[in-house]
Amino acid sequence: MALTGIEIFKLLPKTNCKDCKFPTCLAFAMALAAGKAELDTCPHVSDEAKAQLKDASAPPIRQVSIGTGEYEIKIGGETVLFRHEKTFFNKPGFALLISDEFGDDEIDRRMSLPSFYQYERIGTTLRPELIALKHKGEDERFLNIVRKAKERPYGIIIMCEKASIVKEALEILKGRRPLIYAATTENFTHFGALSKEYESPIIAKGNDIEEVCSVTEKLISMGIKDIVIDTGAKTIKQALQDQIIVRRSAILKRYKPLGFPTIVFPYTMANNLMKETLIASAMIAKYAGIIVLSDFMGESIFPLLLLRLNIYTDPQRPMTTQEGIYPINNPDENSPVLVTCNFSLTYFIVSGEIENSRVPSWLCVMDTEGLSVLTAWAAGKFVGDLVGAFIKRCGIENNISHRKVIIPGYTASIAGDMEEVLPGWEIIVGPREASQIPSFLKTWKN
């Protein structure tokens, strides 16, 4: 039976040394209990405690890191079947297939796509993270593609059946933590040895779940921990069934041979990109760790990125916009200044109405912990002294020649307190409804 955070804490050294990257031993214990940390990260725990904590502290699905730098992606590490139980933590990665059978121009085009399809939303950059390099033809041509990929920052999947070529590719990509595809019942000895030598995660592939379990058990016995599962499903029905079986077996049954993230290939189940996109959307929800696509196009990858964002956003916390100053319609020193909260829906509505007005403006977004204007006001987070302090802190004074700020109409009562914090400023009460902002701004006079 899993131990509670307090029970785990009693077995830890209680030094609060922070070597585990947590601020206290108690915080580390709570993370262990939730399956969000590993016992190995504490260098001071005793052997006796390790023996007691080994099973209790291990996450039901191992977290696996692929790549390095800004494109490093972490998959797995999940502790629940449904996000409303707690939340999902590590979003699935999107990989673009690049085969050595493609022409040089096509390969160059594909190499540029992960960095081309990037979107800013709510202070977050949405983008695919991986490329999957597939060996089908000449060995040297494939290795040249690997060398090209090395110049890109993306995470890399090496898809090759020849252990000797995989070794050369790993040598080229040394230190980049590429994902090796794939260990099977026939080649696990050679591929597992490469995974250990180069400290790269590896995919365990089988024709069904039973065969995959056989491969993962063999890899585990070799001391390999960073494993990704490919059940070999070739139909949407089988893929969904396999994903659910793997997740339920790992979380509910604590079945270690299936306690790993998964990879799926929607392009093997579809004959066009739109159908492939629909399959990929199902795999985001249930429960793929990596989704390999045959191509990236804006009309397919953007909806998938947005769906991923929505599913992997904590449902217990509102979506927020980063605090700061947002210039809209190219404002200058004479432009009006408006202030609002950082609840994302409020931000998008207010900024959209300002854009529609075509009046150059400065929008100051204050951190209210994701609460809307009225809720934040009622909670004491959007009150006069705090809003005034924010106006001082954000530095908007450096951008304007006047000293006027427009506040939401529903919070007119905070004007007096703001004037005390901002002597010399004129506090203007704006409209109550966002839809009235364009007509209000058009009457603005400095």
Q: Structural class of the helix and strand makeup? A: alpha/beta
CATH architecture of the largest domain: Alpha-Beta Barrel
CATH superfamily of the largest domain: Dihydropteroate synthase-like
Strand order of the largest sheet: 10-9-8-7-6-3-12-11
Instruction: Kindly report the average pLDDT value.
Output: 92
Gap from first CA to last CA: 68 Å
Helicity level, as a percent range?
Answer: 25-40%
Largest sheet: 8 strands, parallel
Instruction: Sum up the overall morphology in one term.
Output: globular
Task: Please state the CA-atom Rg, rounded to the nearest Å.
Answer: 26 Å
Number of strands: 17
Count of individual domains? 3
Q: Number of helical segments?
A: 16
**Which parts are unreliable, with pLDDT below 50 for 5 consecutive residues or more?**
none
CATH class of the largest domain: Alpha Beta
What does this structure look like?
The protein has 446 residues and is of the alpha/beta class. It has three domains: 5-57, 3-methyladenine DNA Glycosylase II, Chain A, domain 3 (Orthogonal Bundle); 64-311, Dihydropteroate synthase-like (TIM Barrel, Alpha-Beta Barrel), CATH 3.20.20; 324-442, Rossmann fold, CATH 3.40.50. Helices cover 38% and strands 16% of the residues. The protein contains 16 helices and 17 strands. It has helices at 5-9, 25-33, 47-57, 104-116, 139-150, 163-172, 188-198, 209-221, 236-251, 273-285, 298-311, 344-357, 373-378, 384-394, 415-421, 437-442, and strands at 64-66, 73-75, 93-99, 119-121, 124-126, 130-134, 155-159, 179-183, 202-205, 227-230, 263-264, 290-293, 324-328, 337-341, 361-366, 404-407, 426-429. The strands form five sheets. It has an eight-stranded parallel beta sheet. A three-stranded mixed beta sheet has the order 13-15-14, with helices on both faces. It has a two-stranded antiparallel ribbon with strand order 1-2. Strand 11 (263-264), helix 10 and strand 12 (290-293) form a beta-alpha-beta unit. Helix 5 (139-150) packs parallel to helix 6. The radius of gyration is 26 Å and the shape is globular. It starts with a helix and ends with a helix. The model has no long low-confidence stretch (mean pLDDT 92).
